[in-house]
TrEMBL record:
Annotated signal peptide: none
Cellular component terms per the entry's GO annotation: plasma membrane
Location in the cell: Cell membrane
Domain DAGKc stretches: 240-362
Segments of this protein annotated with the region Disordered: 1-39
Protein name: Undecaprenyl-diphosphatase
Keywords: Cell membrane, Hydrolase, Membrane, Transmembrane, Transmembrane helix
Species the sequence originates in: Thermomonospora echinospora
Length: 537
């Protein structure tokens, strides 16, 4: 006959510390002190009630028989020791080419890094709650080494909840739901194996969720896509085999044989044009748009910009196929992989997005993401000179160091106001990220420009703070930093031409220069599940 030692101990006068967990917390938690006797009695009475509920819930789980889980849950609990399960999952997500999954892995890992010390260094030492007595837990579940640390709160549960919440803030439900289910199973396993009371687990979950949500204070969660309201459906435009599609593949921007092979398999009737680095990309795109019903472009943001110009000139819809380094515009549409582009085409869902413009005497250029002037144009020029020798990312790092050490502010007049500008960005639409370097936006058709610039105030410290603002994107209190929203911006320079970067490509302009908008001018394909669109036929 099994004797419930914990129940016998609870029957004694005063009981044991393990049977009165919340009562012990009342005595040891900081701040209880020697208040008035009546208040203390009410406090102890409430904690005794919570303790009774906690014991009843633990007993219910301990005596439960869940066939098949007797062996699974203990092993799952052990796999989560020291965060091994979650960091392994983060590594798997990080090896994908999906930026959303990489952000999810990073945010989940940061949440664990915040929750773990909060639990182990603060919570456990502050409350010092004993572990449960495991007399009711079957031995088959107790395959773990008895923990010697305090019970409250549960570190496993905090890490599980923090990682799952961090992933849910970034990833799609198809990834976030399995991670959340696994996290819930780990938290339940901590009670099922007798390691924690349910109250310990609930407290750990709360800390983990709070840690993950707290990461948004310094790193705002990015929405899955930038929404639009101009939904379109064009009958007969889409065919199963891709007839009428002309795809221009910029091999120099990363669109290689893998993307070309995917398009050839999925859209066998589509015409595929390979643009090598020595070819005139603008001419090839213009010719392709002239004979296409749908113009597809494979490459980075610069290639998509050139494709958008051709699509606007010939009045055909644009299908963006990510094949560059960053692919900001494709990702804003919700297209993160070439397979997403094929699915968007077959769904036949189109929308209209705004186009930013840069007008100078006798010429107009466009941008889909951002235009910039100042130090960033120097960085791009230096990177392009270096990347053929050492690669794009090393070239970017070297160019950044050289630029921020040597770049001087430029003398310009912004809407008639003289400024010494060190760095300036003009966004096609209002961006949601903080700081002078915008990275994502909520809408692609809001009709506004998002202007952010840093005026140079002199001194080495000012330059370093401005550099930190660019790198981290959140130091919006940098001296000289200003931001406003408008529909147009006029730029003049007293010392001749300026260099302006549009979607990562630089060129010289002759002032006066006017930044403006062409609202809902470009028709593009977007995923069928895209939220926020009002369909129209």
């Amino acid at each position: 006959m099994r004797v419930n030692l914990r129940r016998l101990d609870a029957a004694r006068p005063g009981g044991s510390s393990a049977s009165r967990p919340f009562t012990d917390l009342a005595r040891q938690a900081p701040g209880t002190g020697r208040g008035r006797r009546r208040a203390r009695l009410r406090h102890h009475r409430a904690l005794r009630g919570l303790s009774a509920i906690d014991r009843w819930a633990f007993d219910a789980v301990a005596t439960a028989r869940l066939p098949g889980l007797e062996y699974v849950l203990p092993r799952l609990s052990r796999a989560a020791d020291n965060g091994v399960l979650w960091f392994t999952t983060a590594a798997v997500l990080g090896t994908t080419r999906r930026p959303r999954l990489r952000r999810a892995a990073l945010r989940g890992s940061i949440a664990i890094a915040l929750a773990s010390p909060a639990v182990n260094l603060l919570g456990k030492h502050a409350f010092r709650r004993p572990r449960p007595v495991v007399d009711l837990v079957p031995q088959v579940r107790i395959r773990w080494k008895l923990p010697t640390s305090h019970a409250f709160p549960s570190g496993h549960s905090a890490s599980a909840a923090g990682f799952a919440t961090g992933v849910a803030l970034e990833a799609s439900p198809i990834v976030a739901v399995p991670v959340a289910v696994t996290a819930a199973a780990v938290a339940f396993a901590r009670v099922y194996t007798g390691a924690h009371y349910p109250g310990d687990v609930l407290a750990g979950i709360s800390i983990g969720v709070a840690a993950a949500l707290g990461t948004r204070l310094v790193w705002p969660a990015r929405p899955p896509v930038a929404t639009t309201v101009h939904g379109l459906f064009v009958p007969g435009l889409v065919t199963e085999d891709g007839r009428g599609v002309v795809a221009v593949v910029n091999t120099g921007a990363g669109g290689g044989d893998g993307v070309t092979g995917l398009l050839a398999r999925e859209l066998p009737a589509a015409e595929i044009v390979r643009a090598d680095p020595q070819d005139d990309l603008t001419k090839l795109l213009d010719e392709a748009a002239g004979r296409a019903r749908v113009l597809a472009v494979v490459g980075g943001d610069g290639t998509v910009n050139a494709g958008a110009r051709a699509a606007l000139r010939h009045g055909v819809p644009l299908l963006t196929v990510p094949g560059g380094t960053l692919d900001h515009f494709s990702r804003a549409l919700g297209i993160e992989h070439p397979a997403d582009a094929v699915a968007a085409y077959r769904a036949g869902r189109l929308t209209r997005v705004d186009v930013g413009t840069v007008r100078q005497p006798g010429e107009e250029a466009i941008f889909l993401n951002t235009a910039s002037f100042g130090a960033y144009t120097d960085l791009v020029d230096r990177r392009e000179r270096l990347e053929q020798r050492i690669g794009k990312w090393p070239a970017t790092a070297v160019a950044a160091v050289r630029t921020f050490r040597r770049a001087a502010p430029i003398e310009v007049s912004v809407d008639g106001r003289p400024r010494r500008v060190w760095l300036a960005f003009v966004g096609n639409g209002v961006y949601g990220s903080h700081g002078p370097a915008p990275t994502w936006r909520r809408r692609l058709d809001d009709g506004r420009l998002d202007v952010r610039l840093i005026s140079f105030s002199g001194g080495h410290v000012s330059r370093l703070r401005a550099l930190a603002a660019v790198l981290f994107g959140h130091l919006h209190l940098t001296p000289g930093y200003s931001r406003w929203k408008t529909t147009s911006l006029t730029l003049t320079a007293p010392h001749g031409d300026l260099r302006v970067a549009r979607d990562g490509e630089t060129h010289a302009v002759s002032p006066p220069v006017e930044f403006g908008k062409r609202p809902a001018a470009l028709t593009v394909f977007c995923p069928a599940h895209r939220p926020g669109m009002t369909p129209a036929r």
